[in-house]
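Re: your question about DUF7674 domain-containing protein

S., sorry for the slow reply, the queue was backed up all week. Below is exactly what I fed in.
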Amino acid sequence: MVDWRERAQALVPELRDVLEQESWSCHVFLAELSQLAMEAHREGNDDVLRRAYEFAHWCFHQPEQFLEHAALVSFYEHVFDDWALRDEVAPWLPVDVLPKVRALWEWRWDAERLTEVDRLLAGIQPPGRDAV
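Result:
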């Protein structure tokens, strides 16, 4: 089994206190990471954003389905919870995650909000990447 705590410590030392709670799961860590990412969006802190989204995406691609599901339900499902940040959040979302997380959004949101997110995500270039 992959040691998600080791990877998290390397990428997000800001959340060391959460990692030190051995009884807390990856879900708790990802929920805290989500809050850290929202703060970083508000502050325009691209370094923290890069590391936060990198960790969530790393979890999404692990062979253990537990980590993939944790990333989906404890991080990606909530990226638009602060609706005022939607324009800042959208470019950070990995394209390969969208089909799975969209099903969760469909369950939570009305058609108007879902349409707005679809519009935001259409053709967005992730930060730091050149247009293809």
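The longest helix spans residues 26-43. The CA atoms of residues 12 and 121 lie 26 Å apart.

Happy to talk it through on Thursday.
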